[in-house]
Amino acid sequence: DAKTTQPTSMDCAEGRAANLPCNHSTISGNEYVYWYRQIHSQGPQYIIHGLKNNETNEMASLIITEDRKSSTLILPHATLRDTAVYYCIVRVMGNTPLVFGKGTRLSVIA
Amino acid sequence: EPEVTQTPSHQVTQMGQEVILRCVPISNHLYFYWYRQILGQKVEFLVSFYNNEISEKSEIFDDQFSVERPDGSNFTLKIRSTKLEDSAMYFCASSIAGVGETQYFGPGTRLLVL
Q: For residue B102, which residues of chain A lie inside 8 Å, CB to CB?
């Protein structure tokens, strides 16, 4: 079972920042936080990952709390194309399987 | 940008028939995976493959399933005798061997068993 808890759904106005929370209170010291998204029934798309420091790339920012028990994915300027299911996954180091939960369905509204 | 490709995009088959789903992982990747997603349900891990052998498999991956890397580019999933409940999207993924490496997914094959 997934080790994360996410809200079932969220709405965001187009052009505004989308902040998607994730709780992972049982995360271990050697586990990363990964974020993927799935648009319609397409293959999951990698967004970003981190261990304990905040991370930013061209798609998003990842903010991890100091105790690492929760994190927030930030899409700085959401567009309609960001409408998708977003998955927060914790995963040990190494090439281990991804365990997907139900994720958060983000709807970006014009 | 390199990407994982999968063929066919759609496959319709009769119950009891064999199907082979094909994937071309990203060229310098060494770990390969299959996942599936039954309509409306979560994405589920099936199997991982490295150095020409299975690294890990889930309880879904029973004797009806097999994987193979028949050449230097393709990675296949075979279902020997399909059942109605095998109807799902099947996703291939690949990653570079290493610590905590990111898995990149293909677009999927939609399998419908009638």
A: 34, 46, 49
| CA of A97 vs chain B CAs: smallest distance (Å) | 6
Residue partners of A103: CB distance under 8 A and separation at least 6: A6, A38, A85, A86, A87, A88
Residues of chain B with C-beta less than 8 angstroms from the C-beta of A38: 43
Q: Which residue has the tokens 């998003």?
A: A60
Assigned token pair, A99: 């365990």
Q: Which amino acid is it at A61?
A: S
Strand partners, B105: B93
The tens place of each residue's pLDDT in chain B, 114 residues long, gives 789 999 999 999 999 999 999 999 998 898 999 999 999 999 999 999 998 999 999 999 999 999 999 887 899 999 999 999 999 999 999 998 765 588 999 999 999 999
